[in-house]
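User: My advisor asked me to double-check a structure prediction for Protein p34 before group meeting. I don't want to rely on an old file, so could you generate it fresh from this sequence?
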Amino acid sequence: MKLAFGSLLVGFAVLGLKALAWWMTGSVALLSDALESTVNVVTAIAALIAIRVAALPADANHPYGHHKAEFFSATLEGVMIIIAAMLIMHQAYGGFFAPKVIDAPIEGLLVNGGATVLNALWCWVLITRGRVERSPALVADGRHLLSDVVTSCGVALGILLAYATGWWVLDPALAALVAVNILWSGWKVIRDSLSGLLDEAVPEDTLKAIREVISTKAGGAVEAHDLRTRHAGKVTFIDFHLVVPGEMSVAEAHEVCDQVEHCLKEVVIDANVTIHVEPEFKAKHTGIIVLD
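Assistant: Sure, here is a fresh prediction for Protein p34 from the sequence you gave:
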């Protein structure tokens, strides 16, 4: 929550600096950079709301919790990144056919550079902490800021080249190239978010670890089958059928399940495990073999 609120404060600070840089120079590229920072503020607000909703406990209407709220926020951020790229492309198009001399380019770049450094530091914090806390909203917000850093660096390079050569058309031309890069960044954020909304299975290495735990820690059972996984926010849902000998008591089967669940939660942080116990004649002989 503190990180999401910090993003909002950083967003306002960066927006102010970039707006000042544009006012000083009149550069179409710096105007485009400021437009993207406006989107940053909007998405920071969305991430803050999403994280608050995702933290709500499960209730009667949402028995699995509210974790997917973060995926909606991340999807919105991807869409906003693409909108920012289109706005930049629009400004670059106008500037390309009517290039103009930039006022106070060095002073403007110094102000914009301060905003870029602030953005770079904060996006590193967001991506690092977001991965540790397994928060899609924070990671998406960090990637969005990273695209903003790339934009700012490209804009600075374009202005410096234009200033050195007198080819002021480089200002909007390079801004357009950077906009294409931002479009790709927005698509990646949307793609990752949709995988969570569509209940995509966990990565193959995580799935392999889950299978290994079941195979080695379910001593006394026969096999496991119909393993299913999905992730929602920081929570990973794991469910499967565990086949036990017909003579095993309910208490003994429950003890085996507790052992497997405990081990799975050590391997997969924030795992939610559901195990359906079945008698031996239900074995499919196509799932996970339990090793004694």
